[in-house]
């Protein structure tokens, strides 16, 4: 066969792909009409999307790159979802932040992105209806919990409906050579993740904390002899060059992001449930709650205390449990915990997040 023959075959395959995409779009529109008739409002269904991607990856057998398959189908699902109703996604702005990158990774590009600053305001943006979902950073493997986000769960009725683990690659970005940099902007978490490198290579250079790494990049792009600690997308967005590559102190620097919205997700068989509770003021109260989890064989993957804002020197506990809230053992455990506590609420039940590529 000649080269032109191979190209003709590829053209035929592309025509078939387009025909099938059009058929898929037509079915999605009918699904949207069915949801409207039956009162089903959910557009984003992370459990269903996980099911689709897992099934396709299992059938792929290595003929097509797995990462490419995930990217393509994320965009196909995103475009089809927009046929039902375009979604708006709030993230920590401005454009180019890690939250922006994760939002695009999870929802595709056929959505409206809403940049919000500071991060806790993402909750009010979703609650008010200015965005359908929000993406917030909850913890980092190097620097721990993002406290201002964790505290917001005491006040909101929003549910966690998804999560994503993102390997964070921090770079030193600038329009100036390294030796000419007199000032560095970044988010406090980013500075903390790169403390050792900055101490060894940028000693004496002023460090200024701002609301996000993308805000840092935006400032660095507008001021001479200035740099930002931020990710690759921020550099590309604001025209900055990498003058210090992968400057994180830990090679496995990863941030966990949560998707918040008005609903939880259905069961996938590999799920997580997050709860918030306050124990009674008595000896062994927390032990009793932990004993319930042991009795029902529910694994606890995270526990963190927060000051209660209802009474001084009292605390509430944020806990991640393995399993869906509708699983028999989890459901029974939550019922007993609720009886033991002065307050307990389910913050969300959702598919355990996959590790995505670093940005």
UniProtKB/TrEMBL annotation:
Pathway: Amino-acid biosynthesis; L-phenylalanine biosynthesis; phenylpyruvate from prephenate: step 1/1; Metabolic intermediate biosynthesis; prephenate biosynthesis; prephenate from chorismate: step 1/1. It comes from Geodia barretti. It catalyses: chorismate = prephenate; prephenate + H(+) = 3-phenylpyruvate + CO2 + H2O. It comes from the Eukaryota. Residues 88-262 form the Prephenate dehydratase domain. The keyword Zinc does not apply. Catalyzes the Claisen rearrangement of chorismate to prephenate and the decarboxylation/dehydration of prephenate to phenylpyruvate. It is an enzyme of class 4 (lyase). GO terms for cellular component: cytoplasm. Residues 1-88 form the Chorismate mutase domain. One of its GO terms (molecular function) is chorismate mutase activity. Residues 274-351 form the ACT domain. Its EC number is 4.2.1.51. GO terms for biological process: chorismate metabolic process; L-phenylalanine biosynthetic process. The keyword Metal-binding does not apply. Keywords: Amino-acid biosynthesis, Aromatic amino acid biosynthesis, Cytoplasm, Isomerase, Lyase, Multifunctional enzyme, Phenylalanine biosynthesis. This is Bifunctional chorismate mutase/prephenate dehydratase. It is found in: Cytoplasm.
């Amino acid at each position: 066969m000649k080269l032109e023959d191979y190209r003709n075959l590829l053209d035929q395959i592309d025509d078939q792909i387009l025909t099938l995409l059009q058929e898929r779009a037509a079915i999605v529109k009918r699904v949207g009409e069915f949801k409207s008739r039956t009162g089903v409002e959910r557009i984003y269904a992370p459990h269903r999307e996980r099911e689709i991607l897992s099934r396709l990856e299992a059938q792929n057998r290595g003929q097509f790159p797995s990462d490419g398959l995930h990217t393509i189908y994320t965009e196909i699902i995103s475009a089809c979802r927009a046929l039902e109703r375009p979604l708006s996604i709030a993230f920590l702005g401005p454009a180019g932040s890690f939250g922006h990158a994760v939002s695009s990774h999870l929802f595709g590009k056929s959505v409206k992105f809403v940049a919000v600053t500071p991060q806790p305001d993402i909750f009010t943006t979703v609650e008010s209806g200015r965005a359908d979902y929000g993406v917030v950073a909850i913890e980092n493997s190097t620097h721990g919990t993002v406290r201002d986000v964790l505290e917001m769960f005491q006040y909101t009725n929003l549910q966690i409906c998804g999560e994503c683990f993102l390997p964070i690659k921090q770079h030193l970005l600038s329009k100036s050579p390294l030796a000419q940099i007199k000032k560095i902007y970044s988010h406090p978490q980013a500075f903390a993740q790169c403390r050792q490198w900055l101490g060894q290579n940028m000693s004496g250079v002023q460090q200024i904390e701002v609301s996000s790494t993308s805000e840092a990049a935006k400032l660095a792009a507008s001021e001479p002899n200035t740099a930002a600690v931020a990710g690759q997308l921020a550099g590309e967005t604001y025209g900055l060059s990498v003058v210090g590559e992968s400057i994180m102190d830990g090679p496995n620097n990863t941030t966990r992001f949560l998707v918040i919205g008005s609903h939880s997700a259905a069961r996938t068989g590999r799920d997580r449930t997050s709860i918030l509770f306050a124990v009674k003021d008595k000896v062994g109260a927390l032990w009793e709650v932990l004993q319930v989890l042991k009795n029902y064989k529910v694994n606890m993957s995270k526990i963190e205390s927060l000051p209660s804002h209802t009474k001084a020197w009292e605390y509430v506990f944020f806990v991640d449990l393995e399993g869906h809230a509708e699983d028999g053992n989890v459901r029974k455990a939550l019922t007993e915990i609720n009886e033991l506590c002065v307050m307990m609420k389910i913050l969300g039940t959702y598919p355990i997040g996959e590790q995505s590529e670093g940005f």
